[in-house]
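Researcher: Next entry: Aldehyde dehydrogenase family protein (Sphingomonas naphthae).
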Amino acid sequence: MELGKIVRPAFLDRIEQDMLIGGQRVPALSGKRFETRNPATGELLAQVAEGAEADVDRAVAAARKALTGPWSRLKPAERQKIMLRLADLVEAHFDELAMLDTLDIGSPLSRSTLGRARAGALLRYYAGQVTTIHGETLPNSAAGDVLSHTLKEPMGVVAAINPWNGPVGMSVWKAGPVLASGCTMVMKPAEQSPLSALRFGELCLEAGVPEGVINVVTGLGAVGAALSSHPGVDKISFTGSTGVGEKIIRAAASTMKRVTVELGGKSPNIVFADADLDKAVPAAATAVFANSGQICSAGTRLFVQSSIREEFMERLAAYTRTIKVGDPLDPETAIGPVVSSQQMEKILGYIDVGGKEGATALVGGRRMSGDYHDKGFFIEPTIFDGVEDSMTIAREEIFGPVLSAFSFDTAEEVLERANATEFGLASGVWTRDLSTAHRMARGIRAGSVWINCYQMLDPAVPFGGYGVSGFGRESGIHHIEDYLETKAVWIKLD
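Model: Predicted structure:
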């Protein structure tokens, strides 16, 4: 698909979008629906089935049935072939999936389509792990002749509760380890972005994933709450805000579910005086403004060494003013709208508080108006200068296109300030000095440290957080381990 030649997906010919349970598209038992609209134009995209506790019950039952059905009897190589077919299908249909995401959340189509390579790579990486799952034969000191070994078995039914800021990518990231491990899943996409998850579920069936292995229950917060406490769910994988994550962990405790959570962030991006500014300036802007700032690992706290601060901030402000904010379907657009009016009001509230607490908006600070912008939820990319570490905008996750800038003098000082947060998801460091890079990488308490780059991801490299940014890791060889139980087997030979 060429950008600028926009084709509305045939998927949206169905104004009423049903859930996917047991291999069938079905309405909610209550008959209720909710609307999903384009945040750039207000256009109605679909009326989506509004699931409730009863719908969760039937989805979990379908997943439980599939867990012990034909899916459990497939050989690893057979499961691998299905996953490779799915990877091919996702890539072949990615223009459609990307368009659904752009229409649903307002991310520029130029950005949505970049996910094609990552989606295919993730599924192929997990497919490669299928045939490597194994137990171990272990020596023991038991009396007599005793053989001991372990088995690796699927954990069971997984509830995947997804955020709205990267819908199709998150569907793939959640489904990959489920399929590779032999588990089954009930996926709850965010109510703001349900469309691509439903289409992904259809592609799973087309690839040969048995009915009931992947289920998609759409709805509001009640669906996530029901999944979190459901006795038929064995594990929860949640990505989203720290506040919601805390509620899910509490609900899951009642049935001792396994839980992995990837939560919020307030990530530091640190620029030393010896950095390559030609690279660091645009990267600092992209680190926070990409996807309208709606990325958990966004570099929202910018620390610039004092000796280059004035030059850096001038260049950053000038660069930010060149960023085009507008129609997500325009190939020149770099930033689209935020996802909803509620999100827009929340972000504007933080911007207002930042000014009242004494910070100065060097760039932006307002809702955009005029021409195309009146139709949607557009906010100017905003840079706050004169920010103190104690200010609200310096401490709390805004999840919008808002950057707080600070200055620092020494590496020891900035390391202490960078770590003075309850979050610990990601970080960036810009320096040409190898010793500085290594010291900062060791000292920063965050799950990812990007040196002279930002927001890089790869299927083989783990991603996750410290502190209230969550626990567990996604991607990498340990990801699938979180979906497996280890069983010890003892055999008395004498």
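Model: Note for the record: Residues 76-92 form the longest helix (17 residues).
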